[in-house]
Design the sequence.
């Protein structure tokens, strides 16, 4: 099961600690960050992919409700607060659930399961759209259409690229940077200077080595490892 990347926002240390301890008990949640205010969380969201936010409502500078309204494409939200009167406002903003402090673990699990259902629907919708995405490359004098969902990895060799798909390998004359720009797909990640990898085909990670579903092993650059782990939800 692919993990759900989440963050926690609460200006009270006890509130943050409680949600963190609960989230660690749920195997499919991956805590990417913990913040004491939405402003610092916003900077993090601009650089990282997050699917779920646990947020307090009453906080300095900007409250959780207004913070959600500022996000153009917000992740799934679960609000956690001591004030029941905020419940209606919380749902009006599109939050998935609303938990009242002190939060019980069983109630937390119900909210997380609701969030997971929403996220699964979004992922399935995205996967359906991405399954039809394609690129065109010139190989052996022909223009060839390749579905992105068929590409395992792309390897640079001199002035050429080898596009390795599930069924064939296509050679085309272009730079890896140009290919990276043309993909514009979050499933593809440049793990080192000469490789772009489709993350859907990663079977396992051993230190700096990745094993793909076809059995091939590829090394990851040291400076790419941390970002790769985040993308894989590890």
Sequence:
């Amino acid at each position: 099961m692919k993990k759900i990347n989440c963050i926690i926002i609460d200006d009270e240390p006890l509130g943050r600690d409680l949600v963190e301890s609960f989230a660690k008990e749920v195997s499919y949640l991956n805590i990417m960050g913990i913040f004491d205010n939405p402003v610092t969380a916003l900077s993090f969201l601009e650089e990282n992919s997050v699917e779920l936010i646990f947020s307090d409502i009453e906080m300095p500078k900007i409250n959780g409700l207004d913070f959600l309204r500022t996000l153009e494409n917000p992740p799934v939200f679960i609000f956690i607060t001591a004030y029941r009167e905020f419940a209606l406002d919380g749902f009006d903003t599109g939050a998935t659930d609303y938990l009242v402090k002190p939060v019980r673990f069983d109630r937390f699990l119900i909210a997380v399961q609701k969030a997971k259902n929403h996220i699964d629907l979004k992922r399935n919708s995205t996967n359906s759209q991405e399954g039809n995405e394609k690129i065109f490359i010139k190989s052996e004098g022909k223009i060839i259409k390749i579905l992105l969902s068929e590409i395992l990895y792309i390897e640079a060799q001199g002035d050429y690229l080898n596009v390795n798909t599930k069924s064939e390998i296509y050679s085309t004359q272009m730079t890896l940077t140009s290919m990276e720009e043309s993909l514009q797909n979050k499933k593809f990640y440049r793990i080192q200077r000469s490789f772009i990898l489709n993350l859907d085909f990663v079977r396992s990670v051993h230190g700096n080595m990745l094993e793909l579903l076809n059995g091939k092993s590829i090394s990851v650059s040291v400076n790419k490892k941390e970002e790769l782990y985040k993308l894989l939800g590890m």
